[in-house]
Amino acid sequence: MLQNQFQSCIKACYECAEACDTCAAACLQESDPKIMARCIMLDDECAAVCRLAAQLMSRSSEHANLLCQLCTDICDACAQECGSHQYQHCQDCAAACRRCANECRRMTQLISGQGTSAGAHSR
């Protein structure tokens, strides 16, 4: 796959990872961080998978498609959790997660449509 073709997805992944890191740090500063435990956990997972997905896309890895499918699922879960909290950092994170999930969906559809070995794994 051509790395330039997926530049917007790579960018969305890195922006989502940053938003998740910011959200997790801010959640820890809330008056009762225990109630934010799931949010913090998903923020951490989402940031990690987004960074790895961006790295694999940058390397044109044959496994990028599979990881981006996972990234979509985790971003969707994180967006749902963060979106359920009224804090601005959570709302910002939810928006970044939705953008990233949409970009990853687009990317996996492009790869699957090309019939690459990476796309073949998802069929």
Automatic annotation (TrEMBL):
Organism for this UniProt entry: Massilia oculi
Record field: transmembrane: none
InterPro entries, per database record: Csp_YhjQ (IPR005560), YHJQ-like (IPR044543)
CDD domains linked to this entry: DUF326
Record-given protein name: Four-helix bundle copper-binding protein
Pfam families found in the cross-reference section: Csp
